[in-house]
Amino acid sequence: MSNDPTFESVRISIDDGIAEVHLRATGKSPRMGPSFWNEFAQVFRWLDGDPRVRVVLLRGEGPNFSTGLDLQAMASEVAPLVGPAVATERYALYALIQRMQGAIDAVAACKKPVIAAIAGNCLGGGVDLITACDVRLCADDAVFSVREVRLAMVADVGTLARLPGIVGQGVAREWALTGDDFDAKRALRAGLVNETFATHEALFAAARAMAGRIARNPPLTVQGVKQVLNDRSEREARESLKYVALYNAAFLPSEDLREALSAWMEKREPKFEGR
């Protein structure tokens, strides 16, 4: 339809009940910059209300799913909040975290099921995003990382709230505490993804086929299944998200965070002092 909205952060096509949402690439990979955080909740509210859409397929544009937060693009928004903070800065940081949480929460809150088709890198905020999806499939070349700890951050937009319910506490804690990369085989063993595929083409074909099977089922019943499954898990996620937003508003500004950002810009290993 000509009156469909357009978005800077995503490209959307709708066909036969399936909305295919491509995260737009910046350079080689989709990154979560200002347009993503400003638009993404609106994207999913629109999809939720569009009667043509029965299921959403979420994927990256190009060879990668998402490399997470675009630190360079977000620097002007984040930098003033990570220095010495008084109440004004802490409140602004709390509001920023809540807004970013809302972008990911909109995926879980969408009445229509969301399938994530993950190729290549899925790092940091990318993991936050896929944990809010209903089903995750990936290509054999997929690489994942709960990377925030390596940047002196407590992940605060969904991973810590939802990942333990998907893979269990032990695996979730390992990934969140180490920040290690892990591959498609490990993701499959842990239950993060349902199935892996040898090529990107096979992945996207399988994701579309699954979306088609879901779209052919009675839509209100499908939405009811998601609503019932979400009832307990999302109530628990909301409590966790509220807590981590308050925690990071209080403790995210630190010398270690400034060191992590400096090391990232200077392309060197950070030296953390616990300050």
Identify the notable features of this structure and list them briefly.
three-stranded mixed beta sheet, 2-enoyl-CoA Hydratase, Chain A, domain 1, 51% helix, 16% strand, alpha/beta, six-stranded mixed beta sheet, 11 strands
Question: How would you sum up this structure, described in words?
Answer:
With 275 residues, this protein is an alpha/beta fold. The protein has a single domain, classed as 2-enoyl-CoA Hydratase, Chain A, domain 1 (Alpha-Beta Complex). Helix content is 51%, strand content 16%. It has 10 helices and 11 strands. It has a 6-stranded mixed sheet, sandwiched between helices. A 3-stranded mixed sheet has the order 7-9-10. Helix 3 runs antiparallel to helix 9, helix 5 crosses helix 6 and helix 5 crosses helix 9. It starts with 9 loop residues before the first strand and ends in a 9-residue tail after the last helix. The mean pLDDT is 94.
Write the layout of secondary structure elements.
Elements lengths: L9 E6 L2 E6 L1 E2 L2 E2 L3 H16 L5 E6 L10 H8 L8 H23 L4 E5 L2 E3 L1 H7 L3 E5 L3 E3 L13 H9 L1 H10 L2 E3 H7 L4 E3 L2 H16 L3 H33 L3 H12 L9
Parallel strand pairs: 2-5, 5-6, 6-8, 7-9, 8-11
Antiparallel strand pairs: 1-2, 3-4, 9-10
